[in-house]
Amino acid sequence: MRDAGITGCVVNATCEEDWDAVEALAAEFGGFVIPAYGIHPWKADTAKVGWEERLKRRLKADPGATVGEIGVDGWVAAPEMDVQREVFVKQVRIAVEMGRIMTVHCLKAWEELFSVMDELPQWPEKFLMHSFGGSIEVAERLAKKGAWFSFSGYFLHERKRKVLEVFRKLPKDRILLETDAPEMMPPEEFVEFRLESGANHPANLRAIAEAFVNDMGDTILGQFEENRKRFWR
Ligand SMILES: [Zn+2]
Protein backbone atom coordinates (compact mmCIF):
# COMPACT_ATOMS: atom_id res chain seq x y z
CA MET A 1 0.00 0.00 0.00
CA ARG A 2 2.83 2.41 0.83
CA ASP A 3 4.45 1.67 -2.52
CA ALA A 4 1.17 2.66 -4.18
CA GLY A 5 1.24 6.03 -2.41
CA ILE A 6 -1.37 5.21 0.21
CA THR A 7 -0.75 6.95 3.53
CA GLY A 8 -3.07 5.06 5.85
CA CYS A 9 -5.97 2.70 6.18
CA VAL A 10 -8.63 1.42 8.51
CA VAL A 11 -8.74 -2.28 9.31
CA ASN A 12 -12.16 -3.45 10.42
CA ALA A 13 -12.82 -6.53 12.48
CA THR A 14 -15.90 -8.57 11.64
CA CYS A 15 -16.15 -10.60 14.86
CA GLU A 16 -14.43 -10.97 18.22
CA GLU A 17 -12.11 -13.63 16.80
CA ASP A 18 -10.59 -10.95 14.54
CA TRP A 19 -9.75 -8.51 17.30
CA ASP A 20 -6.30 -9.88 18.10
CA ALA A 21 -5.27 -9.82 14.45
CA VAL A 22 -6.52 -6.23 14.03
CA GLU A 23 -4.64 -5.19 17.15
CA ALA A 24 -1.47 -6.88 15.91
CA LEU A 25 -1.65 -5.00 12.59
CA ALA A 26 -2.19 -1.69 14.36
CA ALA A 27 0.80 -2.40 16.61
CA GLU A 28 3.05 -3.41 13.72
CA PHE A 29 2.02 -0.51 11.47
CA GLY A 30 1.43 2.24 14.02
CA GLY A 31 0.35 5.51 12.44
CA PHE A 32 -0.64 3.69 9.26
CA VAL A 33 -3.32 1.26 10.42
CA ILE A 34 -6.33 2.60 12.32
CA PRO A 35 -7.95 -0.34 14.08
CA ALA A 36 -11.72 -0.83 14.19
CA TYR A 37 -13.13 -3.34 16.66
CA GLY A 38 -16.66 -4.63 16.44
CA ILE A 39 -19.06 -7.32 15.35
CA HIS A 40 -20.39 -7.25 11.79
CA PRO A 41 -24.14 -7.83 11.28
CA TRP A 42 -23.41 -11.04 9.34
CA LYS A 43 -21.67 -12.35 12.45
CA ALA A 44 -24.02 -10.94 15.07
CA ASP A 45 -24.85 -14.47 16.21
CA THR A 46 -21.21 -15.13 17.14
CA ALA A 47 -21.36 -12.61 20.02
CA LYS A 48 -20.45 -14.48 23.18
CA VAL A 49 -21.36 -13.61 26.78
CA GLY A 50 -19.34 -10.65 28.01
CA TRP A 51 -18.35 -9.36 24.57
CA GLU A 52 -19.47 -5.81 25.38
CA GLU A 53 -17.02 -5.52 28.28
CA ARG A 54 -14.25 -7.04 26.22
CA LEU A 55 -14.94 -4.57 23.40
CA LYS A 56 -14.78 -1.64 25.81
CA ARG A 57 -11.52 -2.92 27.25
CA ARG A 58 -10.06 -3.21 23.74
CA LEU A 59 -11.10 0.37 22.93
CA LYS A 60 -9.87 1.73 26.24
CA ALA A 61 -6.43 0.23 25.57
CA ASP A 62 -6.09 2.33 22.40
CA PRO A 63 -7.51 5.87 22.34
CA GLY A 64 -7.09 5.90 18.55
CA ALA A 65 -9.17 2.75 18.04
CA THR A 66 -12.58 3.03 16.38
CA VAL A 67 -15.72 0.88 16.28
CA GLY A 68 -16.45 -1.22 13.21
CA GLU A 69 -17.71 -2.88 11.23
CA ILE A 70 -21.18 -2.69 12.72
CA GLY A 71 -24.66 -2.29 11.29
CA VAL A 72 -27.72 -3.99 9.92
CA ASP A 73 -28.16 -6.04 6.76
CA GLY A 74 -31.53 -6.97 5.29
CA TRP A 75 -29.95 -8.69 2.29
CA VAL A 76 -28.72 -11.74 4.18
CA ALA A 77 -31.21 -14.31 5.46
CA ALA A 78 -29.33 -14.88 8.71
CA PRO A 79 -28.66 -13.86 11.43
CA GLU A 80 -32.19 -12.61 12.00
CA MET A 81 -32.72 -8.86 12.10
CA ASP A 82 -33.59 -8.90 15.81
CA VAL A 83 -30.22 -10.48 16.58
CA GLN A 84 -28.35 -8.05 14.29
CA ARG A 85 -30.19 -5.09 15.72
CA GLU A 86 -29.45 -5.90 19.34
CA VAL A 87 -25.71 -6.29 18.71
CA PHE A 88 -25.68 -3.10 16.61
CA VAL A 89 -27.52 -1.00 19.22
CA LYS A 90 -25.12 -2.09 21.96
CA GLN A 91 -22.12 -1.16 19.82
CA VAL A 92 -23.52 2.27 18.98
CA ARG A 93 -24.03 2.88 22.71
CA ILE A 94 -20.41 1.90 23.35
CA ALA A 95 -19.19 4.21 20.55
CA VAL A 96 -21.17 7.10 22.05
CA GLU A 97 -20.05 6.36 25.60
CA MET A 98 -16.40 6.19 24.59
CA GLY A 99 -16.52 8.99 22.03
CA ARG A 100 -15.36 6.82 19.14
CA ILE A 101 -15.94 7.00 15.42
CA MET A 102 -17.90 4.10 13.96
CA THR A 103 -17.95 2.44 10.55
CA VAL A 104 -21.46 1.37 9.62
CA HIS A 105 -22.51 -1.34 7.19
CA CYS A 106 -26.09 -1.04 5.98
CA LEU A 107 -27.55 -3.02 3.12
CA LYS A 108 -31.26 -3.11 2.33
CA ALA A 109 -32.09 -2.11 5.89
CA TRP A 110 -32.40 1.68 5.80
CA GLU A 111 -35.61 1.92 7.78
CA GLU A 112 -34.15 -0.41 10.40
CA LEU A 113 -31.12 1.89 10.66
CA PHE A 114 -33.29 5.01 11.00
CA SER A 115 -35.44 3.32 13.62
CA VAL A 116 -32.31 2.51 15.65
CA MET A 117 -31.31 6.19 15.37
CA ASP A 118 -34.75 7.26 16.62
CA GLU A 119 -34.67 4.79 19.47
CA LEU A 120 -31.27 5.78 20.87
CA PRO A 121 -31.08 8.89 23.06
CA GLN A 122 -27.64 9.69 21.67
CA TRP A 123 -25.91 9.13 18.38
CA PRO A 124 -22.20 9.68 17.58
CA GLU A 125 -21.36 13.12 16.22
CA LYS A 126 -19.93 11.62 13.04
CA PHE A 127 -19.88 8.15 11.54
CA LEU A 128 -18.94 6.48 8.28
CA MET A 129 -21.41 4.77 5.96
CA HIS A 130 -19.06 2.37 4.26
CA SER A 131 -19.60 1.18 0.66
CA PHE A 132 -22.60 3.47 0.59
CA GLY A 133 -25.05 2.31 -2.05
CA GLY A 134 -28.26 4.05 -0.98
CA SER A 135 -30.33 6.71 -2.70
CA ILE A 136 -29.79 10.46 -2.46
CA GLU A 137 -32.87 10.71 -0.25
CA VAL A 138 -31.38 8.20 2.20
CA ALA A 139 -28.03 10.01 2.01
CA GLU A 140 -29.63 13.34 2.91
CA ARG A 141 -31.35 11.85 5.94
CA LEU A 142 -28.09 10.26 7.04
CA ALA A 143 -26.04 13.41 6.43
CA LYS A 144 -28.24 15.29 8.89
CA LYS A 145 -27.27 12.70 11.49
CA GLY A 146 -23.54 13.28 10.85
CA ALA A 147 -22.87 10.64 8.21
CA TRP A 148 -19.84 10.57 5.97
CA PHE A 149 -19.89 8.31 2.94
CA SER A 150 -17.18 6.11 1.54
CA PHE A 151 -17.13 5.13 -2.08
CA SER A 152 -16.06 1.59 -2.85
CA GLY A 153 -14.31 0.64 -6.09
CA TYR A 154 -16.92 -2.06 -6.55
CA PHE A 155 -19.34 0.66 -7.61
CA LEU A 156 -17.23 1.39 -10.68
CA HIS A 157 -18.97 -1.58 -12.30
CA GLU A 158 -21.09 -0.37 -15.21
CA ARG A 159 -24.27 -1.82 -13.69
CA LYS A 160 -23.66 0.23 -10.53
CA ARG A 161 -23.38 3.64 -12.20
CA LYS A 162 -26.32 4.92 -10.20
CA VAL A 163 -24.11 4.99 -7.13
CA LEU A 164 -21.71 7.43 -8.81
CA GLU A 165 -24.67 9.65 -9.64
CA VAL A 166 -25.59 9.75 -5.95
CA PHE A 167 -22.00 10.58 -4.95
CA ARG A 168 -22.00 13.49 -7.41
CA LYS A 169 -24.79 15.06 -5.37
CA LEU A 170 -23.23 14.48 -1.94
CA PRO A 171 -21.40 17.25 -0.08
CA LYS A 172 -17.75 16.94 -1.17
CA ASP A 173 -16.50 17.44 2.36
CA ARG A 174 -18.24 14.23 3.49
CA ILE A 175 -16.73 11.81 0.95
CA LEU A 176 -14.09 9.16 1.62
CA LEU A 177 -12.74 6.27 -0.46
CA GLU A 178 -12.33 2.58 0.24
CA THR A 179 -11.57 -0.75 -1.36
CA ASP A 180 -13.38 -2.98 1.17
CA ALA A 181 -10.56 -5.44 0.40
CA PRO A 182 -10.48 -8.40 0.36
CA GLU A 183 -14.19 -8.11 -0.61
CA MET A 184 -15.90 -6.17 -3.37
CA MET A 185 -13.52 -6.57 -6.30
CA PRO A 186 -13.56 -3.54 -8.60
CA PRO A 187 -13.86 -4.03 -12.38
CA GLU A 188 -10.78 -5.62 -14.03
CA GLU A 189 -9.36 -2.36 -15.38
CA PHE A 190 -8.99 -1.00 -11.83
CA VAL A 191 -7.30 -4.08 -10.41
CA GLU A 192 -3.60 -3.22 -10.14
CA PHE A 193 -2.88 -5.63 -7.31
CA ARG A 194 -4.25 -8.92 -5.98
CA LEU A 195 -3.79 -10.73 -2.72
CA GLU A 196 -2.17 -14.15 -2.97
CA SER A 197 -5.63 -15.69 -2.84
CA GLY A 198 -6.60 -13.63 -5.91
CA ALA A 199 -8.86 -11.40 -3.81
CA ASN A 200 -9.13 -7.62 -3.88
CA HIS A 201 -5.98 -5.85 -2.62
CA PRO A 202 -6.17 -2.62 -0.56
CA ALA A 203 -3.57 -0.93 -2.79
CA ASN A 204 -6.16 -0.89 -5.57
CA LEU A 205 -7.32 2.27 -3.83
CA ARG A 206 -5.04 4.33 -6.05
CA ALA A 207 -6.74 3.17 -9.27
CA ILE A 208 -10.14 3.60 -7.65
CA ALA A 209 -9.28 7.16 -6.60
CA GLU A 210 -8.18 8.01 -10.15
CA ALA A 211 -11.39 6.66 -11.62
CA PHE A 212 -13.48 8.48 -9.03
CA VAL A 213 -11.69 11.79 -9.68
CA ASN A 214 -12.16 11.33 -13.44
CA ASP A 215 -15.86 10.99 -12.87
CA MET A 216 -16.35 13.63 -10.19
CA GLY A 217 -13.98 16.25 -11.59
CA ASP A 218 -10.63 17.46 -10.30
CA THR A 219 -12.07 19.59 -7.52
CA ILE A 220 -12.54 16.47 -5.41
CA LEU A 221 -8.83 15.60 -5.62
CA GLY A 222 -7.50 18.09 -3.07
CA GLN A 223 -10.45 17.32 -0.87
CA PHE A 224 -9.61 13.67 -0.16
CA GLU A 225 -6.56 14.17 2.03
CA GLU A 226 -8.31 16.93 3.93
CA ASN A 227 -11.43 14.79 4.41
CA ARG A 228 -9.38 11.86 5.59
CA LYS A 229 -7.63 14.00 8.21
CA ARG A 230 -10.84 15.65 9.35
CA PHE A 231 -12.74 12.40 9.68
CA TRP A 232 -10.14 10.09 11.20
CA ARG A 233 -8.38 12.92 13.16
ZN1 LIG B 1 -19.61 -3.99 4.94
Terminal CA distance reads 20 Å
The residue ranges in which pLDDT falls below 50 over 5 or more consecutive positions are: none
CA-based gyration radius: 17 Å
The largest pleated sheet is described as: 7 strands, parallel
Q: Helix share of residues?
A: 25-40%
Number of strands: 7
Average residue pLDDT? 94
Structural class comes to alpha/beta
Strand content: 15-25%
CATH superfamily of the domain at 72-232: Metal-dependent hydrolases
Ions and ligands: zinc ion
Return the CATH class of the domain at 72-232.
Alpha Beta
N to C succession of SSEs: EHEHEHEHEHEHEHH
The CATH architecture of the domain at 72-232 comes to Alpha-Beta Barrel
Question: Your description of this structure?
Answer:
The two termini are 20 Å apart. Strands 1-2-3-4-5-6-7 form a seven-stranded parallel beta sheet, sandwiched between helices. The mean pLDDT is 94. The protein has a domain of 161 residues: TIM Barrel (Alpha-Beta Barrel), CATH 3.20.20.140. The radius of gyration is 17 Å and the shape is globular. It is an alpha/beta fold. It is built from eight helices and seven strands. Helix 2 packs parallel to helix 3. 39% of the residues lie in helices and 15% in strands. The protein binds zinc ion (ZN). The site of zinc ion has 4 residues, from loops.
